[in-house]
Specification:
mainly alpha; 11 helices; 0% strand; globular
Length: 261
C-alpha cells in the first residue's frame, strides 16, 4: 500500500513540475487578484470596529493563501479526469492495490503541491505588516497542511464524479469558488445580510480561513474579527478533511470507471 501511495504521490509532483505554465498560473492568478483588488479597494473598503486601522491588503492576505490552496487543489484534481480519458485510472483500479491507496496517493499529491505554494506566499507576510517568527511559521505550516489535505480531498471527490473538463469547471464556478467567496476572505461576516452569515457559518472554508487568521494575526486583532474560536476551527477543518476522504474512498470503492462497465 505504501509503495502505491508513494508512486501516485510522486507522479502528481512530477506532472506538476513539468507543467511550468501550470506552476506560474496557480501562483500568479491569486497574487495578481490580491494585489489589484487589495490595492484597488484601498481605504475605500471600511473594516468594522477595531479593524479600521488595518490595511485591506493585510486583511485580504489570509484569503489569498486560501485561494492559492483552493486553485492548486482544483487544478491538481483535473488529473483524475485526464487519467480516466487516457486509461491510466483504469490500469490503477485493476491493479492489485488497495483502493484507499489510490485515494490517499492522489490526495497527498495535490495537498503537497498546494502546501508548497501556500508556504511560498506565507513567506511574504512581512510585506503586509504581519511579523513572522519560527513558531508562527511552524504553526501556520501545520494549518496549511490541514487546509491542503481537506481541499485536496474535496477536489478529488468533485473530479471523480465529473465526466469532463467542462463539467468540472462548471462545478468549480458554481460550488468551489463561491465557497471561497463566502468564507470571509473578501469581507467580514459582521456586515453581511443574515442569510449570507448563515451560509458562512455552515461553509467549511470559513473555518479553514479562520484558522489561518488566528495564527497569522495578533490575538487582539483576531478576537475583534468575530471569528470561530481557534480550536473550533481546528476541529472543523480536521473533521471536514476526514469526511471528504471517506466520501472519496466510498466513491472509488463503489463506483465504476468508464471502460470497466
Amino acid at each position: 500500500m505504501l509503495l502505491a501511495v508513494a508512486t501516485l504521490w510522486k507522479r502528481e509532483l512530477v506532472r506538476f513540475i513539468r507543467q511550468r505554465s501550470r506552476v506560474f498560473g496557480t501562483l500568479a492568478t491569486p497574487l495578481i487578484f490580491w494585489i489589484l483588488l487589495g490595492s484597488g479597494l484601498g481605504s475605500s473598503f471600511s473594516l468594522p470596529g477595531a479593524l479600521k486601522s488595518m490595511d485591506y491588503l493585510e486583511y485580504f492576505y489570509p484569503g489569498t493563501i486560501l485561494l492559492i490552496i483552493l486553485f492548486t487543489t482544483i487544478f491538481a484534481s483535473l488529473s483524475i479526469i485526464e487519467d480516466r480519458k487516457e486509461g491510466f485510472l483504469l490500469s490503477v483500479l485493476v491493479a492489485p492495490v488497495s483502493r484507499s491507496a489510490i485515494v490517499l496517493g492522489k490526495i497527498l499529491g495535490g495537498a503537497t503541491i498546494a502546501f508548497v505554494q501556500g508556504f511560498f506566499l506565507l513567506l511574504l507576510a512581512p510585506l503586509v505588516g504581519i511579523p513572522l517568527d519560527f513558531w508562527k511559521i511552524l504553526m501556520v505550516s501545520g494549518a496549511l497542511i490541514l487546509a491542503s489535505l481537506s481541499l485536496s480531498g474535496l477536489g478529488f471527490a468533485t473530479a471523480w464524479k465529473t465526466e469532463s473538463m467542462e463539467g468540472y469547471h462548471t462545478v468549480m464556478n458554481v460550488i468551489l469558488f463561491p465557497m471561497w467567496l463566502l468564507s470571509g476572505a473578501l469581507f467580514p461576516a459582521a456586515g453581511a445580510f443574515s442569510w449570507v452569515r448563515w451560509v458562512m457559518v455552515i461553509n467549511p472554508a470559513t473555518y479553514v480561513l479562520s484558522l489561518l487568521k488566528h495564527l497569522l494575526y495578533d490575538p487582539n486583532v483576531a478576537s475583534s474579527m468575530d471569528l470561530p474560536s481557534l480550536w473550533v476551527s481546528v476541529v472543523v477543518t480536521i473533521v471536514f478533511g476526514l469526511i471528504v476522504f471517506l466520501v472519496s474512498l466510498r466513491m472509488v470503492q463503489y463506483s465504476r470507471v468508464r471502460g470497466m462497465e
